[in-house]
Amino acid sequence: MHSQHHTNGILLILLLIAAACAGDSNQKELVIQVISPSVPDSATVYIAGSDSALGTWHPANIALARQPDGIWEKRLYFPPGTELQFKFTLGDWSREALAADSTLPGNHVLTLRNDTTVIYQIDAWRDEHFRQRVQGQITGTVRYHRQLAGDGLKPRDVIVWLPPDYETALQRRYPVLYMHDGQNIIDPQTSAFGHDWRVDEVADSLIRAGEIKPLIVVGIYNTPDRSLEYSDTTLGRAYMAFLTGTLKPLIDRSYRTRPEREHTATMGSSMGGLIAFLLAWQHPETFSAAGCISPAFIYQDWKSIRQVNGHRGADKNIRIYIDNGGIGVEDTLQAGCDAMLKALDTQGFKEGENLQWFFDPRAEHNEPAWARRVWRPLMFMFGK
Predict the structure, then answer these.
(1) Which CATH class is domain 141-382?
(2) For the whole model, what pTM was predicted?
């Protein structure tokens, strides 16, 4: 699931912080307890969060154990000062814990300083009848390609947003932006928290104002394998092969695109920002630009940065946009942004030419924050 963010909406009924342990232990114990009478007897409660010990946002990696009194519990250990963000599921994001008002909540956020026990009361879980109350709608025309499959990958939907003059300027061909976490970028009804990136509204406004070239936006939905697909793993390489070998040819056949690399870019946030970078870096024959929003360059022990530092071949001839905020997870990701900017500098990238960096110290790691600044990478990659 998308690196899930936002302020916490589930009722926190008790936060008990014990005194710091005696001695010099560099690990603090976090005891997570969940009280939820509505959990079916056959179900298991899972925690999914921002740390590898929390499953790196996989909805069914880290199970809580049901205690004799019916409380679900998990004991975890982290260095003091670790900031954690997490949610609860019954094994899938379609069965996520709901807030007290039966809406999808934001993340629980906790900075662990001492041995801590946290108890959560969860009264309801998302099911097939759940309909999130959302504001907003789709601006413009979209088309869908359902259940597209790549070798070794779970099938997923793709949404295609068309520019304002697509149905009238019939001789015109358009550059294409391929975006990851596609269910979160255009339609608030499908977005994880009822907030989308508003790419449709922003692109429409910039096009009508003459600030950017009219473009087609292709949003590729994620799957439960998101973290593996959005990094340099076997599944990640399969995902990149799906984009370059299956999806892009389909889009070029189905729409009036400008298929050349000079007119093809990719963009995403968090892990999606990482895979956007990897696509441009490893496939410059296909992509000429990448928008890396709040990118998780620190993932896989900074592997992407080591790739850049180790590059000895020809210049990549790509353009890179990178930005980040300053709150919560954004602060954790900043070291990776700094290291990547330094690595790109050693490879000859120049800010203001083929590189742009933006920092917003007030921005959190969530869709509303990305919506507020998505105009920046759109201007960098498609500005007139």
Answers:
(1) alpha beta
(2) 0.73
